[in-house]
Specification:
Blueprint: H1 20-28, H2 32-37, E1 54-57, H3 71-85, E2 92-96, H4 105-114, E3 120-124, E4 131-132, E5 145-149, E6 151-152, E7 167-171, H5 177-185, E8 192-196, E9 203-207, E10 213-218, E11 222-227, E12 233-238, H6 249-255, E13 262-266, H7 267-273, E14 293-297, H8 304-315, E15 322-326, H9 341-345, H10 347-350, E16 361-367, H11 371-382, E17 389-394, H12 398-409, E18 419-424, E19 427-431
Parallel strand pairs: 1-2, 2-3, 3-5, 4-6, 5-7, 7-8, 8-10, 9-11, 10-12, 12-13, 13-14, 14-15, 15-16, 16-17, 17-18
Antiparallel strand pairs: 18-19
Helix pairs in contact: 3-4
Length: about 425
């Protein structure tokens, strides 16, 4: 309402006279369904949506309250309209379908995108119906970001690579070892790589000189980081230890990533690298001097190999700033090899020359009061002069939990500002500042 209190009407055809850049900005903020609906506003708007540079096709486009037409028919019609009406480049395209049985038009769509400058492509398909990428996918030479879910990938022998690709994410993708290695090595600018439950890739070789982030989840026989001098962030979560690749794999693996700053490692990742305590060094031959953030998940500090591996990484990381250790959800009734008392007694001596001058935050979840756990907590408090906060979440309750708390409260602290927070379900938390 204007200051004079009188209503004012919009000038005639105000929507039709908007500048082209304003119309494009409005359309870019709408879903594809709503963007197409703007064609009803006026003749001037009728085909404006046809020049959108970013498109997303998902369930919202063909799901209605009265679904009498099969999704396959609907998406086929949508793709047909897109192929016949769209003009100009498409920089980003997302196709996410979870109830599709068969849609041959998708091959035509990929071919269409390959001829229209596609840079960011996301393809997500339903469980049980993986989509085989057509050869036209490998001619999308402008690609910078690719995400594939439930696809079958067969790299042509003539494929020379995506020389502009920065990010590659493969989830539940079927691709053989040879093709995967070729795919990665021929993307010379690749900075981010995610491999999640990739089928048929038993031996993965990563040759990516520009790679900075690598996330791996799933089963594998052998992983070789061949050339990754800039790799700073690694998340390695093995879901099962299928085959031991050879002695000192733990050493060889970390020697290949000298720039490592962030590490997420889990129980099976250790089991993948070593099978017995005799294969775990006290320290890595080359210190992880760049490592600042270390997160160990599903690690049981009562189990010998897991404790030794965790201690090895901590001792080898003199410049740590944050450390988090999360205990296992379930020990499944017994330990493979319980920690020996003699090994626990040696822990303080193995840290005698260590000082963590940058460690400010520590979090340990699932503490049961075992010797190995308590010795590690004691060492970290004594060797971290700038520690600000240590959070401990026990895995025991009642009197046993209070006994653990009492022991920790007596540990010497190198940092006068160190705050120890003991979180238990039965209490809001103990602050041992």
């Amino acid at each position: 309402m204007p200051p004079n209190g009188k209503k004012q009407s919009l000038p005639p055809n105000v929507l039709g006279n908007l500048p082209e850049n304003v119309i494009d900005d409005i359309l870019s903020r709408l879903s594809l369904r709503d963007a197409v609906r703007t064609s009803m506003l006026s003749k001037n708007w009728r085909y404006k949506w046809c020049r959108l540079t970013q498109l997303k096709l998902d369930q919202t486009l063909w799901e209605t309250t009265n679904d009498l037409i099969p999704p396959t028919v609907k998406i086929t019609d949508i793709i047909y309209q897109l192929l016949t009406l769209h003009v100009g480049h498409i920089s980003k395209f997302i196709l996410s379908v979870f109830d599709l049985i068969n849609c041959p038009k998708i091959d035509n769509l990929i071919y269409f995108l390959s001829r229209n400058g596609i840079q960011h492509l996301v393809l997500q398909f339903p469980i049980g119906n993986p989509y085989k990428l057509p050869s036209s996918f490998f001619t999308c030479l402008q690609l910078r970001h690719v995400t594939l879910h439930r696809c079958i990938v067969r790299t042509p022998l003539v494929f020379k690579g995506f020389h502009r690709l920065l990010s590659l994410e493969l989830s539940q993708v079927t691709i053989c070892t040879e093709f995967l290695g070729r795919f990665i090595s021929r993307c010379s600018l690749l900075e981010h790589l995610l491999l999640e439950y990739v089928d048929n890739a038993n031996h993965i070789e990563v040759n990516a000189p520009k790679l900075r982030s690598f996330v791996f989840t799933g089963n594998i026989h052998f992983l070789h980081l061949k050339c990754v001098p800039l790799l700073a962030k690694v998340s390695h979560e093995s879901t099962a230890s299928l085959l031991k690749a050879g002695k000192n794999d733990l050493v060889n693996f970390f020697n290949s990533i000298p720039a490592l700053e962030h590490l997420h490692w889990n129980y099976n990742s250790f089991r993948f690298m070593v099978t017995g305590p005799g294969e775990v060094p006290t320290r890595l031959p080359s210190a992880l001097n760049c490592l600042k953030h270390l997160y160990l998940s599903e690690i049981c500090l009562e189990e010998r190999v897991e404790l030794l591996c965790a201690l090895c990484l901590i001792r080898s990381s003199p410049n740590l700033e944050e450390l988090e250790i999360k205990g296992p959800f379930d020990l499944m009734g017994k330990l493979l090899a319980p920690v020996l008392w003699s090994a626990v007694d040696e822990i303080p001596a193995t840290f005698s020359d260590a000082t963590y001058n940058h460690l400010r935050a520590v979090k340990i979840k699932g503490v049961a009061g075992a010797w190995g756990e308590m010795q590690l907590i004691k060492v970290l408090l004594a060797k971290s002069p700038v520690l600000v906060r240590m959070v401990i979440e026990p895995d025991v309750v009642g009197d046993q939990s209070l006994k653990v708390l009492a022991k920790i409260a007596k540990f010497q602290r190198a940092s006068p500002k160190a705050e120890v927070v003991y979180n238990v379900d039965a209490y809001p938390g103990y602050n041992l500042a």
